[in-house]
Design goal:
14 strands, 15 helices, Rossmann fold, single chain, 40% helix
């Protein structure tokens, strides 16, 4: 059996495109590599077109962080237009399977970022390696054929464990027929040195946008997707901005920019004849300095209708001093308990909660500061390392399937 520091792990990504699951998983990989494990990443797609944005692997912040950290990243080179995370085609060529086989043969354990890559990993003739699937949503019924791929991989013994980032994820997948003993909850965590209140960054970023130092600011960090319920966010913004003459709403993420015609239509629909209020909604697109954006905010907002598990935006925003205001989806209510507000899916109620959050920010700060370690990246990575060590120990006695 290899020593822990020699453990070789291959992560398989559907592709590099903006989203919390990829940010989280890439950070886990970097942390495990820093701890001595050997990590590589294989991406099925080298370029993805989604959220009205062309996203090349080489341009992605996660790709750059991984490669800068010494993690090798290769791709099958596909280009895809994806809808709600579903792989466009599950038919793989001989050269693609050969490249996958080479990558798998060099690993002891495979990590699948969500269940979608199992369409590739379930192909016949690939090396037999234990697979751990990392699950980051709470709606398996909306994952198309990926849920069936997960069940098939469990049935043949390929998938030996699933990491759930939230209790809601475990409950949803257990209800969908995944054996509970395979479902391990490791709550999301973030780098507490990076995500923290920063008064100087707050003032500088506000000044760069022309936002007054005393203006109330709400940040909405999400990709442009149906599950994120952007129209509801915008209707709440209209109600709030009508009452807050200095208020600002900052929208970040893939598709949150002027190049997205669907977002422009949403804004026109939500604000109607009150387009003057929409001038205080700023579209910032994909950012690589979210710690600065959050530090400049008073509120971090989430209006999702479904699918969320443990939204990274809520955790990162809270750690930077923004008060979280969220709908009750996934583990969101559990995450913000004692630190923020949970609302119904009603724009007026959300707007009132934003106002209460701004007014109560100073009073909530001590409880948030006292609870920071609960959201620690160090805790999360240690839990992943222990799980992978356990998987390797249990499976290393079995002979690997030859190529």
């Amino acid at each position: 059996m290899r020593a822990r520091h020699e453990l070789r792990v291959l992560s398989v990504y559907e592709g590099f495109f903006s989203g919390g699951a990829r940010i989280l998983h890439s950070d886990v990989v970097l942390g495990l590599a820093e701890g001595g494990q050997s990590h590589q990443v294989l991406s099925i797609h080298g370029e993805v077109h989604r959220e009205a944005t062309r996203q090349r692997m080489e341009d992605d912040a996660c790709y750059r962080a991984l490669t800068s950290g010494g993690v090798g990243v290769t791709s099958l080179g596909r280009t895809a237009g994806l809808v709600d995370g579903t792989v466009a085609a599950n038919v793989f060529s001989g050269p693609e399977l050969a490249e996958t086989a080479r990558s798998m043969a060099a690993a002891d354990v495979i990590l699948s970022l969500k269940e979608q890559p199992l369409a590739l990993l379930n192909q016949a003739g690939l090396p037999r390696r234990p697979v751990v699937v990392c699950l980051h949503r709470s709606d398996p019924e909306n994952q198309g054929p990926a849920l069936d791929e997960l069940k098939a991989a469990i049935a043949d013994g390929t998938v030996v464990a699933c990491v759930c980032c939230a209790e809601s994820t475990r409950a949803a997948y257990e209800a969908a027929g995944i054996p509970r003993e395979l479902l391990h909850v490791i709550p999301n965590g973030v780098d507490l040195l990076r995500f923290r209140p920063d008064a100087a960054a707050r003032l500088a970023f506000r000044a760069s946008l022309g936002v007054p130092a005393t203006a109330p600011v709400v940040v909405f960090a999400a990709r442009y997707a149906t599950m994120k319920n952007v129209p509801l966010l915008l209707r709440a913004a209209r109600a709030w901005l009508a009452r807050e003459p200095e208020g600002r709403v900052l929208m970040c993420g893939a598709g949150m920019d002027d190049a997205n015609p669907a977002l422009a239509a949403d804004i026109a629909s939500a604000f109607g004849t009150h387009r003057h209020l929409a001038k205080r909604v700023r579209l910032l697109g994909v950012r690589r300095d979210m710690e600065t954006v959050y530090a400049a905010a008073d509120v971090v907002a989430l209006t999702s209708a479904s699918g969320e598990a443990a939204p990274l935006c809520l955790i990162e925003g809270m750690m930077c001093g923004a008060v979280p205001v969220t709908t009750d989806v996934g583990d969101s209510a559990k995450i913000v308990r004692g630190h923020g507000f949970v609302t119904p899916w009603d724009p007026e109620a959300i707007a009132l909660a934003w106002t209460a959050a701004v007014a109560g920010r100073a009073g909530l700060a001590p409880a948030l500061a006292a609870d920071r370690e609960r959201f620690s990246r160090t805790r999360m990575i240690a839990a992943y390392a222990a799980l992978l060590d356990g998987v390797h120990t249990r499976t290393s006695r079995l002979p690997a399937q030859p190529l």
